[in-house]
Amino acid sequence: MPHPRRPRRPRRSHLGARLARWPLIAVAALGTAGCALVTPLPEPTTLAQRLAIFPTDALPLERPATVSWSAHQVPFVEAETDADAAFVLGMVHAHLRLGQLETARRLSQGRVAEMAGPIPFILDLDHALRVLGFGRAAPAILAAMPPESRRWLERFTDGLNHYLMTVEDLPHDFAVLGLEREPWTPEEVLTIGRLAGTDITWLMWVRLLGQRDRPDFAAVLARELQYGRLAPSSREAVLAEAPVRPGRDRALALLTEILDGWARGSNSLALAGTRTASGKPLIASDPHLGVSQPNLWLIAGVKSPTLHVVGLMPVGLPLFALGRTPDIAWGGTNMRAASSDLVDVGGLPAAALTPETHRLGVRAWFDTTRTNRVSPYGPVLSDAPLLPFRDDETVALRWVGHTPTDEITALLNAARATTFDAFRAAFAPFGVSAQSMVYADRHGTIGLVAATQIPRRDADAADRLIQDPDDVRRWWADLATTAELPVIENPPQGFVASANNPPGPAPFPLGWFFSGPDRIDRLSERVRTKDTPWTVEELAQLQTDTYSLGAVTLRDHLVARLGARLAGRPAWDLIAAWDGRFDGDSRGALAFQAFYVPFAAAVWRDLDRPDDWGGGDGKWRVFEVVRALEDPALLAVAEGALATAAETLETHRVWGDIHRMPMATVLGNVPLLGGRYRFGTFPTGGSQETLMKAAHPETTEPHTVRYGAQARHISDLSDPDDNHFVLLGGQDGWFNSATQLDQIDLWRAGRLIRVPLRPETVAREAVVVHRLSPAHGDR
């Protein structure tokens, strides 16, 4: 019989209104931790002092091993067995980022109240995270892993635990957040991996679900789908002669901000040797994630019997998400594929929905329990607080991340590949988050692989936010894998590029909410129009490019239609003469932003569509609307926006006066005492849609960057040592460490750190070398 309708409950407020209190996590920590926040910060430590505490003797290793540390505390591990290499990498992660690891563990498991205390919305957050269930598939993933991958993961976990349970001095975070030593399990590592695999589609659902009561919702959804498909595919970007466009709610808050911070953006570009000064391929990648301290990445290297790689490791995960081996190099961008469906399970019998109870630990308070249900299609999301479902809906989440896909094995095997075919085959078990993997090798091959597992949906599936169970059962019966998805190999144009756009055509929808076209078009344009060979230094400049195609297209359209009637107004003259670059010292960029925000808002207001424009990758959609306006209406809106812009220009001088990069931990939000966890802000360039991504609220008020380019990588395949990385921040998560923030100036200047791959070069350039001895001695 049909599942009975649940008793009507109070209507939940919209997610944004409920969650616009992210700083309260830190406030809660202050209120419940007593004197914890006044625990003295560690004294400044030198690199030598920090490295002196790294364990080196009587370790549970099979054979001796070494860790060579650079001046920026970048480790390179050499081990005689893969298992020992994994163990030492686990110790490295714990040494550099133990406090961050422990908070990520609790976040991924819905245990925030254990750190923050008895604040109702924090308990709601934990409940929502438990329902999402990032660890649901972990036991099955572990059980299905190949033995060598499982051994790698287990030994990495052993390394984390050895450091955690034996080191004498724990990070400052432990005292402030009330953390205890608690051994890790491999399943917990996998759970962090699933948090990192968040489906970016969820963020769009949150926005759209809250608008379904609008009479014009069908048109709202249609517009979102239209603008989510504006970007050309990577295949089209390579083949096009030039870019062609058809004219073209803190409450992004706690839950949204958490998910958004882990959902990966990025740019990635591979150039064939025909386009490079060295004659061998170059590869450049810059991941876009939440701006946080410590950084979400570690730079590391390892050499063991089956691995020889330098690259970026996600903190807490035993894999290299991008990097370089003697043979190949790779990067990647979030494909923004639709890895999830919302499923209407309201018609299922009550017996089909299994209840589950979660015990929520609460710092300095009594534990509590929360309940929800699990359907045959996945957890019932509408049982969770915070999410904007209607009171009479029973909606489940079907997510690839709840199936036993194996990203660790995939990326380990990718790092062992020596050919493009082997690299592509490595991603057969890969699931989330879907990636467009960009590739280059020393033999000259470049390419792109679509790495994911995805349901075979009907073409019109996106027209419905919540799907019928029968459709979902059919779509998910046989997931498509990388072997059936788009691939690019050695295009004659001599480059491949990806910027969160679709990778290429597929026989079923890959997704609907791709990034705007600006970055992929800018990458492609820069490569096609450069008639001299590329160098590493020029790619580093490209990664800091602040030119906005969307802003310039809109500006030029307005100049052509209204220029003569607006000329002479100081703000307009600045905009008309602006070079299109959102440089930190640009007054023209400030003038454009000061004009654009009131202009776009007025366009939407006059069309009675105030809820549709939320900024972000929005300039193309604003341009499309502007094209349809008659000149008198457009002139009136522009004149009003210029009047507002003049006020902003009287108060501020350049873009960097209002657009700033924050250097702070979460605890920096605590009133009074949070200042010691804030390391300042600095003016920065970039904007929403520039290659140097620096996302921000669409405002004319001073603001800080929310997420963007926070790490960079470039490799020249002609030389195994010609690899370059930089982090926004530094390697070390230890407060007052010499390498906590030592890479910020490099990042701001567009400079990178050379990270060699040859062991002899590593040894020659190391400032400290640790020789690690097994507990049983040499065998």
TrEMBL record:
GO terms for biological process: antibiotic biosynthetic process. Keywords: Calcium, Hydrolase, Metal-binding, Signal, Zymogen. PANTHER family: ACYL-HOMOSERINE LACTONE ACYLASE PVDQ, PEPTIDASE S45 PENICILLIN AMIDASE. InterPro entries: Ntn_hydrolases_N, Pen/GL7ACA/AHL_acylase, Penicillin_amidase_A-knob, Penicillin_amidase_dom1, Penicillin_amidase_N_B-knob, S45. Ca(2+) binds at residue 341. Gene3D superfamilies: 1.10.1400.10, 2.30.120.10, Glutamine Phosphoribosylpyrophosphate, subunit 1, domain 1, Penicillin Amidohydrolase, domain 1. Its EC number is 3.5.1.11. It comes from Roseospira goensis. GO terms for molecular function: metal ion binding; penicillin amidase activity. This is Penicillin amidase. Belongs to the peptidase S45 family. Coiled coil: none annotated. Its cofactor is Ca(2+). Pfam families: Penicil_amidase. Binds 1 Ca(2+) ion per dimer.
